[in-house]
Amino acid sequence: DPLQDSDLRNLAELGMGNGGSVMKVEHVPTGIIMAKKIVLIDAKPSVRKQILRELHIMHSCSSPYIVSSFGAYLAEPNICICMEFMNKGSFESVYKSLGGKNSRGDATPGPIPLGIVRQVAKRVLGGLVYLYEEMGVLHRDIKPSNILLNSQGQVKLCDFGVSGELENSVAKTFVGTSVYMSPERIQGSDYSVKSDVWSLGITLIELAHGCFPFSDTEVDFDDDETNGPGRMNGEMSLDSASLTPASAIPSAHHTRRKSRGVSLHGGVGTLSILELMHHIVREPPPLLITPLIPHSMEFAKPVTEGGAGVGQETAEEARVFVEKCLMKDPAERLSPRELLGTGWMRDGSANREAREGELDLRTWAGALP
Ligand code: ATP
Ligand code: MG
């Protein structure tokens, strides 16, 4: 039977993005819990039908690294896309609450252990290889909020670019602009699988640092004060005055919930989305900073926090991996397949002890609130 709105019962709101919102729903006839994405579109009926046809590709996706789809339908003026519900949410929400609660009781961001980030990276690459090699599509929107987790420890990609028409018709102010965009894409060159790899590199740094990487605030792993004044939370203030109304601020990804308004320049100044784009194109790419462990403790340290005690070799492999994701020239940047063959992704390589001590994703995910 085709999916229809009247069969779905709203349970909770899961989140709001630029293009719409996502609800947790129950499909009453079957009792299946789903995530329903509601996208407000601005398109003619013929284009709407085209979008639905394109979204149908999602239906034929079958990969452990891709969120499965139950179908899409029109509910004027919206398009609704029903997908598998991932009960631990996105990696954006995961890391943004890893720092515990502050004195006001708000969740604060914190770094995800490197051993976990490694396993996430492997699965995202698996998803990219599947989309590219089996489905012939690029993801186009890799970022922490589009990488989902469930309590079985499964990691799956959502919101990939199956529908060019949908992309064109989403009623948002700043179409296709994201702070995860590669230098070549900012400069208007062709999009390739290498552009997805750049976005993955930025995403991995964000998860491992517990903050968005384009900042001049230092990453401090020993800091117990999770909400100290210099702590970045991956959000930035934008100087609205420096932008034209047409390039309205709200859709620059990190500005949506800028309640804490940490500026990119550590409080000294603010960086507009345009300045950030210039920065990405002109400046060296960001680096992964891994916690330093005294050499003598390399293997001795018990791995109590999901691979927090990774050895130096693993940390070095991780830095090299991220560097290969963030080569500014896409020709030098590795492809997802090539990245899967690098040291950091191999289970039995250099740091066997560190690898074996790694918490598995299921245990880690299960322990999350
Ligand atoms: P943007 O609009 O900039 O892409 P976004 O990815 O956060 O940002 P949405 O795609 O609308 O926006 O998603 C909103 C939130 O809904 C996500 O951050 C995620 O936490 C949650 N979400 C999306 N899909 C699912 C799902 N299948 N299962 C559980 N939660 C989901
Ligand atoms: Mg999304």
From TrEMBL:
Protein name: Pkinase-domain-containing protein
Stretches assigned to the Protein kinase domain: 8-345
Residues the entry annotates as binding ATP: 37
Family: Belongs to the protein kinase superfamily. STE Ser/Thr protein kinase family. MAP kinase kinase subfamily.
GO molecular-function term, one example from the UniProt record: protein serine/threonine/tyrosine kinase activity
Keywords: ATP-binding, Kinase, Nucleotide-binding, Serine/threonine-protein kinase, Transferase
GO BP field: MAPK cascade
Keyword Transferase in annotation: yes
